[in-house]
Amino acid sequence: MNNDTNRLLDLVAITKDYCEACQDATQYTKTEFTDRMLDLLPRIYWNFFDLSAGVSLGEMDFFSDYVDESLYEDIRSGVAIVMGSADTFLETFEEDMKYSETPISASISEGLADLFQPLFNFISVVHDSEGAQLEEAFISCKEDFENYWSQTLCNVLRALNNVKYGLREDDEL
Exposed (0-12), middle (13-18) or buried (19+): which is 96, by Cβ within 10 Å? Predict the structure, then answer.
């Protein structure tokens, strides 16, 4: 097995851990869940950033969507319960922010559910094909990463970092 294949298999494992953590969010405390996400999200970002995608699949919708509206909402609501009042954060990279006089809010739970969709699709394709479509699934997910969800990951990571290390009301300035 070459190094890229080993790295792809490691990425599948990290992605699987992420999806399982999201699905089991209500089993964690807010601190545990935040720590878990702060562990997994940078590794997911780095691997999708660093690994070469090879040949582009173009605009083709290569894989079916394994995440339906019900599963998405289960993930979003489970994370929202765990995050409680820390779920909402101010979004500074929203395009509408340039033209708005009022702050635009986003939620950690929605961002993590948005990330869950392509990542769950990725690991589901790999699982269902018994690894035969590993490279194709990665190429498709990497294209989505570059075009759509990399910014969401960074924004949610920033918000989670603030939950972990941000200035709290009872902290001194």
Answer: exposed
For residues 151 and 122, what is the distance between their CA atoms, to the nearest angstrom? Answer: 18
The angle formed by the CA atoms of residues 123, 77 and 43, to the nearest 5 degrees, is 40
pTM of the predicted model over 0.90: no
What confidence tens digit (pLDDT) does each residue in 19-69 have?
999 999 999 999 999 999 999 999 999 999 999 866 555 544 556 689 999
- 97 CB-side CA count, 13 A: 10
The single-letter code of the amino acid at 122 is F
What b/e readout covers 55-82, taking b as 16+ CB neighbours within 10 angstroms? eeeeeeebbeeebeeeebebbbebbbeb
Among 98, 104, 101, 108, residue whose Cα is nearest residue 154: 108
CB–CB of 153/115 below 8 Å?
yes
Q: How remote is the C-alpha of 140 from its chain's centroid?
A: 15
63 DSSP assignment: S
Helix, strand, coil percentages in the chain from 3-state DSSP, rounded to 5: 70, 5, 25
> Which of helix, strand or coil describes residue 95?
helix
CA distance 138 to 43: 15
